[in-house]
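Kindly inspect this chain:
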Amino acid sequence: MDTQPQRAVFICEKGIHISAIARELISKGWECSALTTPGSSLTRVAGLEKLHIIEKNQNFIATVLANYQDLLFSSDFISFSSDDHLSEVVQSSLSTLEKEVILPISTDIGLSMMASKVGFTRAIHQLGLRTPLTEIYRSPDELIELSQRFPLPAIAKADAGGGGVSVLRLDIPLSSTDGLHDLAPGVIQEFVEFPVIGVEALFNNGRLAAWMYCDNQETITPFAPSTVRHYGAPLALDFVEQLQTLGEATGAHGFANCSFFYSPDEKVHYIFECDLRASHWARLFPYFGIDVAALLAPSWSGEIATPKLSRGGKTVIHFSRLLTASANKRDGRTFMRTLLRYRCSSDFLAGEGRFFAVAAPIALKFLPERIKPFLKSLRRYI
């Protein structure tokens, strides 16, 4: 048994999913602190040991590293929600040892792949993990040269960034550097038509502790994050060994958001992305019967936890992401259909109860501009 309460720090400027994880750990007796900005969802989490507000006119991560190192170095678990924040820690003046204490890794390989597609590609090649054909380029000129000999179609992805930003599909060889500077450095990856599989993983000091497996059924755009997922039984279990290898090599401690292609003919998975941080979907671990607090504790038994699913699995939607996409497109039909599906959303299943808090501000996008200021002024009375 763990005699002392475990300590966690959540570092996040927004991120509802981080709040759900904080509430889960607090309910299991953890001492949790938050470093966040005014009005974020973390400010509404009851039971925080410490709540530190960093004003929005300050550099968030620079302030965290300058003023709260004692809090960070005395914690058992630190959770980030942003690749940009991870990247800023990696690029900071902290020593390698200090970075490995604060970041969710404890090895040089882990540090090299933090928020970096180039670093991730080097790591999986070094570890011999099954992955689509992928090569690294350092400049727009190198990307052009690669496009002349690389099997097309292919996908060029910038080293940093996510959410489908700085991604370009190549159907013919490139001939000009115009528009390519935001993509360099980066990686070029073969385009395959295999199903995309999402796996949320949880690691305890380099050992795989839990996973949730899903079929990514819908996205906003072809390379954007998923909006609808179906959680069910894996098509094959070879991905587990890949995650174990990755965890051991990086010393990962905490959440990871991994993406695979599944080859129906070979019946194997090809890993092509891994972010060592909690994604929006990580909040579903408790819903599927996975005790995150127990799995992160030093007394964890070593048994890997998997979701408790009914026959047929469970389809879940990303409520706010799908609402925002349909509102931006003025797609009223999809907007209303999403509202009616709220009870299968990750917000609802994670116990957030945020229907009006999420839906109402997004619904304003459908109204004429001249009405919005008046309606927003009424919020102070609600």
Remarks:
- The mean pLDDT is 92.
